Structures are given as structure tokens and as C-alpha cells.
Amino acid sequence: MLKKERLLRIIEIIDQRGIVTVNELIDYLDVSDMTIRRDLDELESSGKLLRIHGGAQSLTYSATQELSHNEKTTIQIDEKKEVAKLAAKSIEDNETLFLGPGTTIELLAHELTNRKVRVITNNLPVFDILQQNDTVDVSLIGGDYRKNTKALVGPIANMMLKKFNFSKAFISSNGVHNEEISTYSIEEGELQQIALNNAHQKYLLIDNFKFNRDDFYVFYNLHDIDYVVTDSKITPNVYRHYSQYVEILKNNNNEDKHK
Asked: I need a surface site. Which of 42, 124, 129, 163 has the fewest CB within 10 A?
């Protein structure tokens, strides 16, 4: 099989299945591990797929099927860590924070250990990260458990959350397209909407991959967000386009700047 044919076949397989491992592609195409990894790197560089740990993901996959929590922890890890570290710099001691669902928010929680803050969350991994820390006052909201995001949602969670006010709310999303912020779950979207409305400052934490993407449920308008925190791989065109809606924070030449 010629290289061009192999690359087209890889794209076809990944678009059909959503996520494919390197070993599966080796079996499908009967080529070496090194060849598949080179092909995947080349296809990612040309914007045809997204590399994840041990394989690749279709660019259209999350719009039709929600990834599991474990799958999300393999995607854009360095970029998510960059976002989390930058977001943590906006937090001052003695603040009351809401931390929502999402693996980027979980990485933010790691940045808050040993910080003197109060955290309200519906994110079970965030609670697990912070609950043994002596300086963080953390509360977990009750509700219905969503396995895919390890978040607590539903009427009970919404009722509890409406009683709280926050100095800052930090949420993530599956996509941002123009002014629309969207996620897969209506319940998660409704809860994040409540948290944002009860916060003095509203932060959206997304890596560069989330721009120009849609998901099932639109739960907030980008005009109503105070800051979007993203990574340094955001393209100039995307940065310029979304700067008309909101202030974007990103690392630039290793310095944190408000753009």
C-alpha cells in the first residue's frame, strides 16, 4: 500500500470508530509501530486528527459521542496543564471558588493544594484531590452521579448550588463556537450556568482544541464570561476572532499576559 493510500485509510478508520489505538492500526494495515506513529504525527500536523496517548481521535468524535473520563485524561495533557497553571495565578488567598466538571479543572485543583481557599465543587476527583489538604476548605455538592465526567448533577445539585456565591467560578466545556459555549450533558450545562451566574468573576478554561467546536447543549454565552484561559498553541486567527467576544489569557514568551 502506498503512503498516500495508507494515510487516507487511517483517516477513514479513525472517522468511523472515533478513537483508535496504535496497535489496532498496526493490525488493520499490517505495518510497523514506527510507521503508524509517524503517520499519526503527520496527520495531526496537517489538522486531520488529534493524537492521544496510545492512538488517535477523530476531530468530529466528541460532537456525536461523549468521551469517557479516562479517555479525556489522555487528550491534550500538556496544554491542559498549561491552562491550569495559568488559571491558578488568578486566584488569591481566602477566595471562595466554584470548580466545575472536567479534566482541566481537576488539574487546576492540583495547583491549589496548600493554598488558603474555600472550594465548592460537583467534581468528585476535585474533591478527592483537595479533601486531605489542611489549608483548603472544600465542599462537595450532592446529586446524581455521571460516570463519564465523575460529576454530581441534577435537581438536588442545582438546588444546593443556588444558595452559594463565589468570588470566582472556573468551568470548562466541550466546545466554543463564536459566542456559544456548549457541552454534552444538559444537566452539567444547567449546573455550570447556575455557578457562573452566582460568581463575581467567570473563567472558562479550554485548550486550543476546543475552539470552533460544537456540542449538544449550549449553556452560556461567551460575551458573559470575564476571561477565557487557554494554552499557547492557540492560532493567531483563532485568538483574534475570539478576542472580539472575551478577554483571552494565555502564555506568551513564557510570561502571563492579559490580551
From this structure: 163
